[in-house]
Amino acid sequence: xxxxxxxxxxxxxxxxxxxxxxxxxxxxDEERNQFNQRVxxxxxxxTPQIARSLISGHWREAITGSWFAGxxxxxxxxxxxxxxxxxxxxxxxxxSHAFALAxxxxxxxxxxxxxxxxxxxxxxxxxxxxxWAMPALMWIDEVNGTDHSIEYLKANGLWERFIxxxxxxxxxxxxxxxxxxxxxxxxxxxxx
Length: 192
Fold this sequence. Notes:
The protein has about 190 residues and is mainly alpha-helical. The protein has 13 helices and no strands.
């Protein structure tokens, strides 16, 4: 991806997408409105090919590409997104990978998120994107009326064991779920 493409598809978006800043107090109302306007301007031009190219890039590109793939429901990017999530090779990118999988809300999303959780909830010293993958799976359960997340959230289950030695306020499932729900609902009402 060349510098002009990064200026077009990455630079105006990745800081607002990072950590879901577009729904937090980190952005002013004016900055949020500018983000929304920029998204509206490029959504008609976004294609699966552009999203794939972004997803295969460094963390900034990957965050942006997966986020746009989720908003546009480009399930043809799903295998690539799932691979990138499971590899956890780029900092923060897993946030948008989990977001995109939740947007797709299909069996392949469930499978990818469960593989991720099965691997990384067992690695107690790895603070990756578990707090995004878990609520993403919960979102899919909510949308589809399924219960895939229950096995992770039961008493003394993988989630409880994973967060046991962590800052409980930040890792409480209710906190993670609320933040994730805010992201998903914001995108549904503004961009989809």
